[in-house]
Amino acid sequence: MKSISISRRKFAQLLTVGAAGAVARPALTLARAAATAPSATTPTVVRLSSNENPYGPSVKALKAMTDSFNLAWRYPEEHADLLIESLAKINGVGRDQILLGDGSSEILKLCAETFTGSTANGQNGSGPSPRGNLVVGDPTFEAILQHAAVNGAEVVKVPLTGNSFSHDLPKMAAAAREGLIYICNPNNPTASITSKNELRDFITKTPSQTMILVDEAYFHYADSSDYESVIPLIKDHPNLIVARTFSKVYGMAGLRCGYCVAQKETIERMRPHQSWDSVNIMALAAAIASLDDPEQVANGRRLNGETKAFLASELGELGYKSIPSQANFVMIDVKRPVVPLIQAFKQRNVQVGRLFPALPNHLRLTIGKKAEMEAFLSAFRQVTA
Ligand SMILES: Cc1ncc(COP(=O)(O)O)c(C=O)c1O
Asked: pLDDT digit string (tens) for 296-338?
């Protein structure tokens, strides 16, 4: 991937080229685009299945995309360069410590390809190897399991702890064989956290041949004093990678932009596995603008917190409990097999989360807008009656 440094002034000029073009050739305005675009689902469907942010992207991000319409013909490296610059500054790391991805899903895939299976730990071309396994919590976000399996890696699932639904770090450490340990924190689908002290201790003790990927997709929603990002630990740990995404609090799931932070040498091991210019120019423009809008995160957290409290109180009155949530979704103990319930919700045009086999009596529900929660609760009363 090329790395070209450009100044903010040059970027402003680039955007002006885009905006001027938009004036000269009447471009589709956002309002018109929204009016003419088909909606993702029919208006009657309440979608609470994918942990999206129902309030959408920042107004600044929408404007940045509009201004970039006429740059769609360009390769995106200058925009990528600017986003990397912002992310490096925000995270207090060097520019060479950031790798962008086509969503954080691409980062997960790159980690599986680089650090698990027969190509793990520099064994390229040496054929199948017993090394390079993937160790994950159970249940957790499954995408990386699939990539590791395709890569020929053994996948070891370690159940979350029974009481707090944290990652069982001692058991995960014992299961690791020089490949990759994946820690989703907060964890999808349980919305639970692994405590900062335990995680710090674990990272310090893990031998450097074993890579650790901490997925912080839901970082912005966590407000427990027992939670923290592990990005500050990267400077002391070449085996630590932290993944982040613009799909959640930044409301950009459909645009596809994520990134990871790690030491430079670790990034350089991952980069050859990646397609060049994998993040599109609209996503980059929107991400750069989002980082400039402090309201986006503050509002997203506040609205999510208020609606989550409303839902918990209503469910409590109905006699149902959830695992305490540090994210924008909750895992509800529905006290019966969830699969028939998922179907029953579907028939009522409410989309809820999929089955997670380790917790067959739990329903994962995204925190939507209050009206969506009311629609869910109305259906919930019917399907559990
Ligand atoms: C824990 C976790 N990581 C990564 C992702 C992938 O996010 P994206 O590829 O949209 O950045 C998700 C999506 O739901 C997730 O829940």
From this structure: 999 999 999 999 999 999 999 999 999 999 999 999 999 999 9
The whole-number average pLDDT for the span 47-66 is 98
d(CA 78, CA 4): 6
Average the pLDDT over each of 34-48, 105-119, 250-264, 270-284 and give the range with the smallest value.
34-48
In this prediction, residue 53 carries a pLDDT of 98
| 117 ligand 1 Cβ < 6 A | no
Which one of 182, 245, 280 would you pick to mutate in the ligand 1 pocket, going by the greatest count of ligand atoms within 8 A of its CB?
245
**Rounded to whole angstroms, how far apart are CA atoms 3 and 264?**
14
Distance CA 247, CA 56 (A): 10
What domains are defined for the chain?
77-291 (3.40.640.10), 295-383 (3.90.1150.10)
Tokens of 211: 């890579």
Burial 257-296 (b: 16+ CB within 10 A, else e): bbbbbbbeebbebbeeebeebbbbbbbbbbbbbbbebeeb
Whether 229 contacts 71, CB under 8 Å: no
The answer to whether the CB of 283 falls within 8 A of the CB of 64 is no
For the ranges 29-38, 151-160, 253-262, the lowest mean pLDDT is seen at: 29-38
Q: Is the C-beta atom of 105 inside 6 A of ligand 1?
A: yes
- What lies within 8 Å, CB to CB, of 371 at 6+ separation is none
Centroid of ligand 1 to alpha carbon of 32 (angstroms): 30
What CA–CA distances, in Å, run from 62 to 50, 67, 284?
A: 22, 9, 12
Q: What number does the ligand 1 atom closest to the CA of 140 have?
A: 1
* Tokens 């299976």, residue located: 117
Sign for the pseudo-dihedral over CA of 124, 129, 130, 136: positive
- Cα 243 to ligand 1 centroid, rounded to whole Å: 9
Q: What spacing in Å lies between the alpha carbon of 25 and ligand 1's midpoint?
A: 37
